[in-house]
Amino acid sequence: MDPLTVLIVDDDESARIGLGHALRGTGYRLVFADGPSAGLDRMASEQIDVVISDHLMPGMTGLEFLSVIRDRYPDTIRIMLTGHADIETAIRAINQGEIYRFLHKPCERTELRVTLHLAAEKMALERENRRLLALIRTSPELQRRLDEETARRAARGPGTD
After folding, report:
1. What is the CATH number of the domain that holds 84?
2. Burial of 29 (C-beta count, 10 Å sphere; 0-12/13-18/19+)
């Protein structure tokens, strides 16, 4: 499988460079955008798996940008990174943008790497689930057996597995 592609969106060039250095050697394919507009252009032109976006940027906030990403590319994992966060912004980011993680600047290298590792695991599990569901849907026998097992579990009630 190809490595995950991570799009880093920040209007601050030194922040983009710093994130690139922090993620060097991780095996992820890193691409960069200097703001939301350029980030949307990158999203339209190539497969992006994870977006890490700053919050305060000219033209569109990171929250607005990640909400657009959620609407257009719902399978893309979204991470917000900001140095100017308050609790209300964090809550809105999670509720409106369905953010996977909310990280503070400056972000510890280890925290960033662990967050991306967990995001990669989440994405792999979701892709495997979609693959298995597609396989089940193409096999009437598998679908019948799944339906029977689901009915058995429902009859036993919650917490009896």
Report:
1. 3.40.50.2300
2. middle
